[in-house]
């Protein structure tokens, strides 16, 4: 009998250990599945333009909902993840790298998948497959269509923000097609060229714009309107905005890196414009230097171009047509606020931008709260509309034209005084930095307005899901 009991105890313990191993295996498989979902979700959010200053908070709340012990640290284009497992007493580190982009349709789809998981509509495994399908799907609009949209957007923004005339619009459409071709066809095929795309595009646009503006002493085409209008879609407004929002939300590392990059990006554009204008000035001694437009569209017509430019921005950023009505409404109201505020706060772009951003943020967050839409996708085109107008109010994008004239004069003149040389140098430095500082002023004003609008609509946050807005 004792032997039989000993053998039964042995087999019982063996079956028990196998049962424990099976439970541990199932537990580990389930944990890995949830971790994989978080990794794919994080990659999709970075790739499709989620608000970077809320990304860490978003991932922390997601891990809590999925009952995972996760810690996250975001840097531009990179997310560090650490997952701990108390049952197995192990931890795992993941490094997620993804190019940062903006795709308003896919961003909304990724957020919808996340909400289905949080509200137990979908399982983690099914949601992971949906994210894989989303990540591998093609863009809504082809590069050829995006090039056409670039031309259309350039034609619409020129009279709206830069005092262009009706005859400037076809020219801006053609040059905008050239910029779009360089961005969507040439830049993706050459990594070396993509690094100098901004400088090269601004040189080409400035050269062509000054050549056209010189015709008939500027009475046919407006040099400043053509150049600024065709470069409006590659301005680093969103980059600087993300940086200022990150700094304001105490994400110092990511915000500082992004702000510094955006300032250097702005300087690249300014240098390119100066070089392009100087090159044409060397060729033609009678090149125009006047930045004022002889003819411009009536200010009341600008309100017609706002919806058209908003549609162009939405299409370039891959938004669906069903998303556009709310975008157009919010963008139009934001522009009205900005337009009339600029009459009161002259040469104060930060205050004008803050007021417009507050109204845009309140409307977008109310849309999200009442109609359960995605606030980010609704407000981004409206925010983008504010950036060119703020730059136009100070005309800093073309501050380098005076530097271009100094370059041409200094190369053709043999005698210059020390005082004149010093004045030229100091003016050149000031004009090169002016564009970057103007972009920072606009971004700071917008970020303050957006933060206040979020507090106004969500004073105590949200219960189950994080606030997904700018």
Outline the fold blueprint.
Elements (H helix, E strand, L loop, with lengths): L1 H47 L6 H11 L3 E7 L2 E8 L4 E8 L6 H15 L5 H13 L6 H19 L6 H22 L1 H4 L2 H18 L8 H9 L5 H12 L3 H32 L18 H15 L7 H21 L4 H23 L3 H20 L5 H13 L5 H40 L13
Antiparallel strand pairs: 1-2, 2-3
Helix pairs in contact: 1-2, 1-3, 1-4, 3-4, 5-6, 5-9, 5-12, 6-8, 6-9, 8-9, 8-11, 10-11, 10-17, 11-16, 11-17, 12-13, 12-15, 13-14, 13-15, 14-15, 14-17, 15-17, 16-17
Please, could you describe this protein's structure?
This is Pheromone-regulated membrane protein 10. The chain has a three-stranded antiparallel beta sheet. The chain contains 17 helices and three strands. The protein folds into two domains: 2-136, no CATH class; 143-457, no CATH class. The termini are far apart. The chain is mainly α. 71% of the residues lie in helices and 5% in strands.
Q: Which properties best describe this structure?
A:
470 residues, mainly alpha, 2 domains, three-stranded antiparallel sheet
Give a brief outline of the structure.
This protein is mainly alpha-helical. It is built from 17 helices and three strands. A three-stranded antiparallel sheet has the order 1-2-3.
Strand content: under 5%
Mean pLDDT: 83
Q: What is the gyration radius calculated from CA atoms?
A: 27 Å
The biggest beta sheet, please?
Answer: 3 strands, antiparallel
The number of helices is: 17
Number of domains: 2
N-to-C order of helices and strands: HHEEEHHHHHHHHHHHHHHH
Q: Name the poorly predicted regions.
A: 22-27, 413-430
Instruction: Tell me the span between the first and last alpha carbons.
Output: 75 Å
Shape: elongated
What share of residues is helical?
over 70%
**How many beta-strand runs?**
3
Secondary-structure content class:
mainly alpha
Strand order of the largest sheet: 1-2-3
Pfam family, one: ThrE_2
Domain Threonine/Serine exporter ThrE: 303-453
Subcellular location: Membrane
Organism: Ascoidea rubescens DSM 1968
